[in-house]
Structures are given as structure tokens and as C-alpha cells.
């Protein structure tokens, strides 16, 4: 029986390890401090809630704008302000998407924007933080805490802008914001998942 050589496998493993290291996100502490603006085309706000007890149904908001003041050396001093045009809501059902614009749901004619303005940032680990702020939806403002995780930073190869990205999650009760249609058949608890991209301004 011929002996097997593990050299090719080890070489391949080494190559994969090198590629993974090259693609790994930089440490949060190395991110450039400064003022950033929301990179609208690559920022998404997804929401999901229980639909008649059968499925977790999701929708999407786009078109977010806003600013981020960031200093990785002092993350607790960070400031975030975001505005989301509610009329941008999309679902897989054109009929439902149209209904969500109406007075029984988001009533976009009277409340065109949802906003989040941070009031406190508490670091929770390397590149993670609990960000609390005032969230306004449907004309109602209440505190909301987002669990935020740093994803990566670097120069965007398309527009050459220095960009930083985060993923955030949070939950809210839609009835507390006056959006009560079909509660409890359609869930009251809404889970938010936010992919946020920010381009450095100075």
C-alpha cells in the first residue's frame, strides 16, 4: 500500500487560511474616526412579525438617510441619526404593500418618515454595543435599544469612499406606536434587522 502525502492538502489549507485572513474585517479600534453619512443604496431595514400564527412574515424599508459620528477610541461618545421614508416599504405582496401605505397601517400621507436619534451608546464587547435612542413611527416617539455589531471597514472599490458597516437588531411593539390593525392575529412584536453602511465625510 502506498503511503499518502498530506503536503498538497496542507498547502491548500494554508492558502485558504491566508485568503480568509486577508478578507477578515479589521479590528473596530482601527476604524477611522470622523463624521459619516448613511450610504443609502446599501442600507436596508428589514422587519418581521408573526403572520396568523403560521409564519414570520418580512418586509423591507429602503432610502434611509442620516449621519454617524464615530470615534472607535471612545465608542460611548458616538452619535447616530437616521431617517427612513416609510413609503419605501416593500413586501412580496403588491396588495399588502399598497395597504401598508394607508391610514389603517403606516398612514404615510400624515407620517412620511420614521426616525431614530441615539441617546446612549454602551459598548458590550469588541465591536459590539447597545445603542439606545428615541424612535419615532406613526407620530409616536418611544425609546428603542438596538444591539449593534461591527461588520467591517475599508475603501469601497466602486466609489472609492471609506466605508464602515454595522448590523443591528431590535424589537418593538407596533401597537405602542398606534399601528394596531389585526393585533393579535398579526403579531404585535416586530423584529428589526438593519444592515447599515456609512461613508466617511471628514
From TrEMBL:
Keywords: Signal
Span of the signal peptide: 1-24
InterPro entries: Lipid/polyisoprenoid-bd_YceI (IPR007372), TTHA0802/YceI-like_sf (IPR036761)
Keyword rRNA processing carried by entry: no
Lipid/polyisoprenoid-binding YceI-like domain ranges (all copies): 35-199
Entry-linked Gene3D superfamilies: Lipid/polyisoprenoid-binding, YceI-like
PANTHER family referenced in this protein's UniProt entry, alphabetically: PROTEIN YCEI
This protein's name: YceI family protein
Origin species: Acetobacter farinalis
Classification lineage: Bacteria, Pseudomonadati, Pseudomonadota, Alphaproteobacteria, Acetobacterales
Amino acid at each position: 500500500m502506498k503511503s499518502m502525502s498530506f503536503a498538497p492538502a496542507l498547502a491548500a489549507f494554508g492558502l485558504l487560511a491566508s485568503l480568509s485572513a486577508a478578507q477578515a474585517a479589521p479590528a473596530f479600534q482601527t476604524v477611522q474616526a470622523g463624521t459619516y453619512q448613511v450610504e443609502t443604496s446599501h442600507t436596508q431595514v428589514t422587519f418581521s412579525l408573526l403572520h396568523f400564527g403560521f409564519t414570520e412574515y418580512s418586509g423591507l424599508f429602503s432610502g434611509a438617510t442620516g449621519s454617524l459620528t464615530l470615534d472607535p477610541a471612545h465608542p460611548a461618545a458616538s452619535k447616530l441619526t437616521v431617517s427612513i421614508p416609510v413609503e419605501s416599504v416593500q413586501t412580496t405582496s403588491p396588495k399588502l404593500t399598497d395597504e401598508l401605505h394607508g391610514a389603517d397601517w403606516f398612514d404615510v400621507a400624515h407620517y412620511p418618515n420614521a426616525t431614530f436619534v441615539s441617546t446612549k451608546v454602551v459598548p458590550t464587547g469588541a465591536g459590539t454595543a447597545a445603542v439606545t435612542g428615541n424612535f419615532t413611527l406613526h407620530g409616536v416617539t418611544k425609546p428603542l435599544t438596538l444591539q449593534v455589531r461591527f461588520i467591517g471597514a475599508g475603501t469601497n472599490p466602486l466609489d472609492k469612499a471609506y466605508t464602515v458597516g454595522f448590523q443591528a437588531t431590535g424589537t418593538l411593539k407596533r401597537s405602542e406606536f398606534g399601528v394596531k390593525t389585526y393585533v393579535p392575529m398579526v403579531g404585535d412584536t416586530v423584529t428589526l434587522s438593519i444592515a447599515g453602511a456609512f461613508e466617511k465625510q471628514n
